[in-house]
Write a structure and sequence with these properties.
globular; ABC_transporter-like_ATP-bd; ATP hydrolysis activity; binds adenosine-5'-triphosphate; 6-stranded mixed beta sheet; about 240 residues; 10 strands; P-loop_NTPase; Rossmann fold
Length: about 240
């Protein structure tokens, strides 16, 4: 088995055709080692979301290879890709994406139910406990704070023990202290449980929790900082947010 949860080799993704063609990713090669936390930063339009979508198998590159848990997703058929994504990829979003009519517990187990699996109740309980939601299992999203909703989404993403967890601006809708708690949870998933996390963020404070920070510009990785401070990240961004 490779040490990399996800490996991109010369990935190019172009949108549009002719005069309106935009190269969102240009020959990007990057490895996300197992058990590490990577932040992805860069100006608006630099290709961060495209990188996340190609790395998670949601989008197919025009050329290059994307390996998740050693399997090249660009060579899989739709059904095989759906299974790989279901079993190996967890995703959380800025907007939480919970089902409003379901309780916290029901939201966490929904993907397993859709996959016709019966999740072990003791594992669901343990996960909800780990993300600090003990006693809130029967609450619906509207009865939970934003930070609590994001914790439900994290528990949902981790339930299937995915190879990698992708987070797209996970703290973007949260106040600073709630955001810190969510980041601490992602950090713990990496440190205590060996989870691999890849997170897109505009926030240098959030990125400073990662092991390494990738900087994208015009569809290319132009810099990588290991364990940078928020100040170093801010300086690298040139004061831009
Ligand atoms: N579906 C699409 N059709 C056409 N162009 C697209 C599409 N998705 C992205 N692009 C273009 O590709 C480039 C990269 O977009 P992407 O969303 O990956 O950037 P980003 O860094 O995530 O930006 P932001 O920080 O604003 O979310 C941009 O120029 C964007 O306009």
């Amino acid at each position: 088995m490779s040490d990399h949860a996800v490996l991109l080799e010369e990935v190019t993704r172009t949108y549009g055709k002719g005069g309106t063609e935009v190269a969102a990713l240009r020959q990007v090669s990057v490895a996300f080692p197992r058990g590490t936390f990577t932040a992805v930063m860069g100006p608006s339009g630099s290709g961060k979301s495209t990188l996340l979508q190609c790395s998670s198998g949601l989008d197919r590159p025009d050329s290059g290879a994307v390996r998740i848990a050693g399997q090249d997703v660009t060579r899989l058929r739709e059904k095989e890709l759906a299974v790989l994504r279901r079993d190996q990829v967890g995703v959380i979003f800025q907007a939480f994406n919970l089902v409003p009519s379901l309780t916290a517990w029901q939201n966490v187990i929904l993907p397993s139910r859709l996959a016709r699996r019966r999740p072990d109740p003791s594992r669901v309980r343990e996960l909800l406990h780990r993300v600090g939601l003990e006693g809130r299992e029967r609450h619906r999203p509207a009865q939970l704070s934003g930070g609590q909703q994001q914790r439900v989404a994290i528990a949902r993403a981790l339930l299937g023990r995915p190879e990698v967890l992708f987070a797209d601006e996970p703290t973007g809708a949260l106040d600073r202290s709630t955001g810190h708690e969510v980041l601490a949870l992602l950090r713990e998933a990496v440190d205590a449980f060996g989870q691999t996390v890849v997170m897109v963020t505009h926030d240098p404070q959030a990125a400073a929790r990662a092991d390494s920070v990738l900087f994208l510009t015009d569809g290319q990785i132009v810099d990588v900082l290991d364990r940078p401070s928020a100040d170093q990240i801010g300086m690298r961004l040139g004061g831009r947010r």
